[in-house]
Design a protein that fits this description.
Length: about 160
């Protein structure tokens, strides 16, 4: 069951209209429609708000394993998910982690080098901008590595449950 289906089922079980859920949660009517239709997934804060209004645990609103794997395929441009089986390819996930660790380290080296230049040299906007871009690339790399590691952990747990 998708998150949207679970949200809709909980809302209907509590006999709440979309408008009432919107009012109580603080989310817009349009956003709740988006979530229930499956057009997008809730972010952590939305899960929290909805679980409070719907009197359930956040986990009760999250997608099940099979749906989770399918949705990751759609949101994974880097190809972590095997498109034929719609399941995680651990080898590709590990390669993804290695690539982003290397990219992150390169970005960190650039960031530190430009930070040193900024500290000991006269301030220049171009150096500052390159420093901030390097920091941004580093942060994005770390996020991708964390996301891939979390997916691998999820995958291993699911494999253990199946065995």
């Amino acid at each position: 069951m998708t998150s949207g289906e679970k949200i809709k089922a909980k809302r209907q079980a509590m006999h709440l209209s979309l408008e009432e859920l919107s009012r109580r949660s603080g989310l817009s009517f349009e956003r709740i429609e988006e979530l229930e239709s499956g057009a997008s997934l809730p972010v952590a804060e939305e899960y929290s708000l909805l679980s409070k209004v719907l009197n359930c645990q956040i986990e009760d609103l999250m997608e099940s394993k099979s749906t989770y794997e399918g949705s990751l395929k759609d949101s994974s441009p880097s190809g972590i998910v095997d498109t034929k089986k719609r399941t995680l390819s651990p080898t590709r996930a590990i390669a993804h982690i290695v690539i982003y660790v290397i990219l992150g380290l390169i970005a960190l080296v650039f960031f530190l080098a430009f930070l040193i230049i900024l500290a000991f040299d006269e301030f220049e906007w171009n150096t500052f901008i390159i420093t901030m871009i390097s920091l941004g690339v580093f942060i994005l790399s770390v996020e991708e590595v964390v996301r891939s590691i979390r997916y691998l952990i999820h995958y291993r747990r699911e494999k253990r449950r199946e065995d």
